[in-house]
Amino acid sequence: METLALPRRLPLTRAQVRLLVDGGLVVPGTSEYIHGDLLEKMPQNPRHVHATKRVRRALEQLFGWEFVGSQAPIQVSEDSDPEPDAFVLNQPTESFSETPTAADCVLVVEVSDATLGWDKNIKLRLYALAHIDEYWIVDVAHRRLLVHRTPQGEDYLDIRTYTETEQVAPLSRPSAPLTVSELLP
């Protein structure tokens, strides 16, 4: 019986990824740097695109456009720069000359259409370990919002599900609730 030798994984550093992007070998927005690997992002279907626009618009109304980022990297660990569908920073986006870090984020949002398992597991652990206080998953298929608060280790202690008719307010804007349907296509 032959033994199957698996190829050795060659993790990338953040500097190597930047060289690939700067050299035009990787197109920005087509991949994410997760756990030392450059992973190809799934193509976005129309429902995902529409929901992402709605999320961004709702967050801009609550926080101001200058504090909201979308589909851009945030540095959550030495080997991971995920690109959430939307995020809110604690200072204007224009004030950053480098990639914002987890400490700069007050809210991170992923829009899940075909990626719910990934967003509820891999992304959730990344954001919890990075101590991002609030992580939302807009579950397009089930028309609901999964809200994760109070990170501890690689999970969140406070996890709640809101239906499309319910209201929720971000931790950093408790007096400004929005209805979940505002986020859905």
Automatic annotation (TrEMBL):
Domain Putative restriction endonuclease: 31-170
Pfam families: Uma2
An example molecular function term from Gene Ontology annotations: endonuclease activity
Alphabetical list of CDD domains matching this protein: DUF820-like (cd06260)
Keywords: Endonuclease, Hydrolase, Nuclease
InterPro entries noted in UniProt: Nuclease_put_TT1808 (IPR012296), Restrct_endonuc-II-like (IPR011335), Uma2 (IPR008538)
PANTHER family: SLR1083 PROTEIN
Protein name stated in the entry: Uma2 family endonuclease
